[in-house]
Amino acid sequence: MKQVGYSDSSMEHVKSLSSSKFEEEELLIQMLETAKRDLQQSIEKEVKENLILQASLERRKHALQKRRLEFEDVSSLQEQLQVEKDLRAALEVPDEKWRLEMDEEIEHNNT
Fold first, then answer.
1. Cα–Cα distance measured from residue 76 to residue 40, given in angstroms and rounded to the nearest whole number
2. Rounded to two decimals, what is the model's pTM?
């Protein structure tokens, strides 16, 4: 078999192509690692912001629940007040009737 001989310059050319390809791959790996790190940092930032928003949402939710309970208390008090007013009105009717009867009797006695 005849061995094909390569000149030193063609071997250097092959080596330089291999070296160049290796450098391109290393550069690509570095770019991917940088992109990965940037994405991880972005994710961490989003997680922190989401935690802040979640805490704010919880505070607002509790505040609304408190207001709802206060509104229910006010509504209940309004109903209780109306019941008391109705009761007073019912109790005053006999008083009014009695007062009118007494006034009539007094008038009748004075005439």
1. 53
2. 0.50
